[in-house]
């Protein structure tokens, strides 16, 4: 009962934030996807415009194909504000999971109960997973419901794959913030680490691709593993999905190794 309460209480404490982030993700997803009918009508003009762009710039911006629904959604919904919102939310909730509560002093109340630090860490991590999954679900349901209205001819399974991969990328950065917070107990450090790696990941999967010496940055980017398989066209990629699943679990294991031994500021 107590174990369930640690997990449930964390979600209840963050329920208002979760609802707000879900509304934001759904609104942004709908806003960008709603332009597809107009874009489809002007596909020829858009293609001519793309031909005038400097070589490599369109690829860096994710604009390789703006004439298909898959290409348009990849370049707008899945490469711009929607994943950024998810990642920001994941980093904030991951930071709050341990370091935030530790600095506020509320972690003391949790650890005062007969529950181990590992159990607290795992259940807070589970709360972060559910939080991020709910954001992915908001994006998926928005696309699934409005796709027929907006003439987006993409199967529900492919929409689910794309939103799931994006949510998993966000979970990687949220897990990093949680892990750094559990290791250091510092909210600012956890927040900075999550944000820094997210920025490096985004740049590594976009502009760094145009510099041969920096292409290795792609392999450090969760964006690369989420977007490169083109899940809107191909569905889940088993290998890349496995990487996006393994990274959060590995970060949790690293965090547990330190969190159970260090002095907690309570």
Short description:
This protein has 266 residues and is mainly alpha-helical.
Could you please describe the fold and organization of this structure?
The chain contains 14 helices and no strands. The chain is mainly alpha-helical and 266 residues long. The radius of gyration is 20 Å and the shape is globular.
Question: What is the topological layout?
Answer:
Blueprint: H1 2-13, H2 15-33, H3 36-41, H4 43-52, H5 57-60, H6 69-75, H7 81-104, H8 107-111, H9 117-146, H10 156-184, H11 187-204, H12 222-227, H13 231-234, H14 238-259
Helix pairs in contact: 1-9, 2-7, 2-9, 7-9, 7-10, 7-11, 9-10, 9-14, 10-11, 10-14
The gyration radius over C-alpha positions equals 20 Å
The global form is: globular
Q: Indicate the low-confidence ranges by residue numbers.
A: none
Quaternary form? single chain
Report the strand count. 0
For the termini, the CA-CA separation is: 24 Å
Share of residues in strands: under 5%
Share of residues in helices: over 70%
The number of domains is 1
H-E string: HHHHHHHHHHHHHH
Query: Structural class of the secondary structure composition?
Result: mainly alpha
Summed up, the helix count is 14
Mean pLDDT: 89
Describe the largest sheet. Answer: none
Descriptive keywords:
single chain, 266 residues, mainly alpha, 14 helices, 0% strand, ABC-type transporter activity
């Amino acid at each position: 009962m107590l174990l369930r309460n640690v997990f449930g209480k964390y979600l209840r404490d963050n329920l208002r934030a979760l609802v707000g982030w879900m509304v934001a993700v759904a609104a942004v997803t709908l806003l960008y996807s709603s332009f597809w009918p107009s874009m489809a009508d002007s596909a020829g003009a858009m293609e001519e415009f793309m031909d005038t762009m400097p070589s490599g710039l369109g690829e860096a911006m994710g604009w390789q194909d703006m004439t298909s629904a898959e290409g348009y959604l990849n370049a707008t919904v899945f490469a711009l504000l929607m994943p950024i919102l998810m990642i920001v939310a994941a980093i904030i909730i991951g930071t709050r999971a341990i370091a935030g509560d530790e600095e506020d002093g509320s972690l003391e109340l949790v650890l005062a109960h007969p529950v181990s630090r590992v159990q607290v860490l795992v259940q807070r991590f589970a709360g972060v997973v559910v939080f991020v999954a709910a954001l992915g679900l908001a994006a998926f349901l928005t696309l699934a419901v409005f796709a027929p209205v907006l003439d987006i001819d993409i199967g529900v399974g492919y929409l689910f794959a794309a939103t799931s991969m994006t949510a998993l990328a966000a979970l990687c950065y949220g897990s990093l913030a949680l892990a750094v917070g559990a290791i250091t107990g510092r909210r600012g450090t956890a927040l900075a680490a999550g944000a820094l790696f997210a920025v490096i990941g985004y740049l590594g999967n976009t502009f760094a691709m145009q510099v041969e010496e920096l292409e290795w940055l792609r392999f450090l980017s969760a964006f690369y593993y989420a977007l490169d398989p083109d899940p809107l066209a191909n569905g889940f990629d088993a290998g890349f999905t496995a990487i996006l699943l393994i990274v959060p679990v590995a970060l949790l294991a690293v965090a547990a190794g330190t969190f159970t031994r260090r002095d907690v500021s309570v």
